[in-house]
Amino acid sequence: MLSRRHLVALVDVAGERVLAGADGRLPELEERWPSHRDLVAAVGDPGAVLVAPPVREDDGTVVDVLAWSGGATAVGMSWRGADEVDLASGAAATTLRARVGELLSGLVPDDGREPWFALGWVDEVDAWVDGVVGGLGLERSGPRELVKVWSLSAVARFAVRAPDGVERDLWFKATCAGFRAEPVLTAWVAALDPAIAPGMVGLDPERAWMLLEAFPESEDDPTLDQVADVAAALARLQLASRDQVASLRAAGAPDRGLAATVAGLRRVVERGVEGPTMTDEQRAAAVDVEPWLVEQVTTLHGLGLPLTLVHGDLHLGNVTWSGGAPLLFDWTDACVAHPFLDARHLGFSAAHHLGPVGEEAVRGAYLDVWRSAYPGLDVDRAWELSEVGDRVFTLVSYEGIYLAQPAWGRWELATISVELIDRLVALRPR
What we know:
Layout: E1 5-12, E2 17-21, E3 28-29, H1 36-43, E4 49-50, E5 61-67, E6 77-80, H2 90-105, H3 121-135, E7 139-140, E8 145-149, E9 153-161, E10 167-175, H4 182-192, E11 200-204, E12 209-213, H5 224-241, H6 245-250, H7 258-271, H8 280-301, E13 308-310, E14 319-322, E15 325-328, E16 335-337, H9 340-354, H10 356-373, H11 379-404, H12 416-427
Helix pairs in contact: 5-9, 5-10, 7-8, 7-11, 8-11, 8-12, 9-10, 9-11, 11-12
């Protein structure tokens, strides 16, 4: 990952001012991935909204620009002109002045940014949510809380109240142009198995918006039994999707089968977005290992297992438990693909949390379900091959993410593809 230091600039648009400390500097965050909560806490304005896409300068400085809500601000800070703020970076100072100029003009640059990087977008969301919950006989019981805003999505929490006074939270999510099918696919999965996906409260396919029932946060320390339950539930879900693949594709799920995987791998090796950042040795190694990777993936697909619904990014951070049962969320990468890719990805995550026994728990529970469904097939061999299969799938996924972002936004995930290629090269037996 590229180095970065986040500076938080709260802008009073009407007053043409920026909030700074007594030394004239902006608040600085050490977190590599600050949430929207972190940003507003740094300036003391919980109602502030991010109104410009953060861009990483060559020196690692990232300026996060928020619009002042008109409320309180952090103690010990005061308003200054944009030219009076000390950013300790000439490039960052230029970026800040440009952002302030954009806000003053009211014109949103046509640079590929998503709609949420603009003044007034949250007002549209508030109006839509009010309409959805009002139609259900509910009302909002508190202010909207933005939780995460970045180039790929925007997430907010809304508190609502029923006529009997019972309150609960709902989650709003908007997805970027590259993943506009996520809301519809989330609804599709919930229809297939209501227990395993978040409940859908509201859906706007045109704007790629959805409103979901709130669910518990992921477990920091899942147990082996919980991990095994996730693996078995995943296998059952995939088996249930076998006869509905055509419907899944119609809902917007991309085809990530063998042909698409091989073509995607070839694209990364020949003209991948991160290719220019690789050394000559890395590029040569990628070209050299490609035929072996294709052979491994082709063998995996040739074992006779069907293509199914695949989550696409099934790590334990995208899993929680509701009423003791596993619930899978963040279906951004949902697709039609080889089912074992999800299980291997989950296994890697379980190993990270629990060590080798975590991955073994995933393997055992997952293969038991598939072995019962396909007793004549070599599911153990499929598990073995899926290590390379998952890494290749993930590499192709990140290339898709890069291409879905404007070039100036790719810094957020920079170097991941190169790291994945290095891992794939290391997997080939010598």
